[in-house]
Design goal:
88% helix, 0% strand, 312 residues
């Protein structure tokens, strides 16, 4: 009797684990697009950091991402149980923040380029230079963790939607599994990307006259030539991802805009353009939303400045 009960228990556990595995795979497929954006954004954040500080910065952001998910997973479960109506507005605020950050970056590059290159053009001047580089590094880490929070929230909410009808314990298992996989996967890849040039340098310095050594050197030089262009491409992709992800979140939260974009796409005869039009239009909407948010912030700052100057 006890043996039969034990076998039943093992069978139940196996069934639960199988269900969790299936739901985790489904959630991973649905969040794959966000994963790509997360990878591009975080690789972009490390650009400009000294080579010997790249991995420490990635590790700091990875720890921040883990803390984000430790906050988001329980919070998502609580909100889903007590106030499911608030999930969409909160996501939209996150989407607007992404669009705002994207526009702010473009704004600084276009109108304040000297600030972007200020630290790079400085020569070492001792302690002040060290403090400046530390401040830049800290700013990059904080910015990456803030961006990760929004993308992590979207991943968690998408996952929660996948397991909404499952038992509570299965929801927890899938959410925790996705959170761990996404954190390890994204920051493992980011670490590999930012150290790609070091790997190329190692191969380029390979000694010997054999064919293998010569091939290693050629491959190393090829990597060294390719790495800067890849980082620039990731920087562009990271900024574009802010608008695409943020715009998509906002569009899906505004039914009239969502339907309008779907209608525009349905009118296009070309299959490829029909599939890509919604993505591009989401990005355009994201840029518009980001510009509106930046203008609102600048206007608020100016009004507050006027109020303060009058009160003095």
């Amino acid at each position: 009797m006890a043996g039969a009960s034990l076998l039943t228990l093992i069978d139940d556990i196996a069934t639960i684990l199988d269900d969790v595995s299936v739901m985790t795979k489904m959630a991973a497929k649905k969040t794959a697009g966000v994963l790509g954006d997360d990878l591009a954004l975080n690789a972009q954040q490390v650009a400009g950091v000294n080579a010997d500080r790249e991995l420490p910065v990635v590790w700091a952001v990875a720890k921040g991402s883990a803390v984000n998910k430790l906050i988001l997973v329980p919070l998502a479960l609580v909100i889903s149980a007590l106030a499911p109506w608030s999930v969409t507005p909160l996501l939209m605020l996150g989407g607007l923040f992404l669009c705002f950050e994207g526009v702010e970056k473009l704004f600084h590059k276009l109108f304040h380029p000297e600030e972007t290159h200020h630290l790079k053009s400085q020569k070492p001047i001792g302690q002040n230079e060290s403090k400046s580089l530390e401040a830049l590094e800290e700013e990059k880490i904080k910015g990456a963790i803030r961006t990760d929070f929004v993308l992590s929230a979207e991943i968690i909410v998408i996952t929660l939607g996948t397991v909404a009808t499952a038992e509570f314990t299965q929801q927890i298992a899938v959410l925790v599994g996705i959170a761990v996989m996404m954190t390890v996967g994204v920051y493992g890849l980011v670490a590999g990307i930012v150290k790609l040039d070091d790997g190329g340098l190692y191969l380029a310095e390979c000694q010997g006259k054999s064919l293998v050594a010569a091939l290693k050197r050629k491959f190393g030089f090829a990597i060294l030539g390719f790495a800067p262009y890849m980082m620039k491409a990731l920087s562009v992709a990271g900024t574009a991802a802010m608008f695409l992800v943020g715009g998509a979140i906002l569009v899906h939260g505004i039914p009239s805009v969502h339907h309008a974009i779907e209608h525009i796409a349905s009118e296009i005869n070309n299959g490829f353009l029909q599939a890509t039009a919604p993505i591009l239009l989401n990005g355009v909407f994201g840029v518009m939303a980001g510009v509106a948010a930046l203008l609102a912030m600048l206007t608020s700052k100016r009004l507050l400045g006027l109020v303060k100057s009058r009160s003095i």
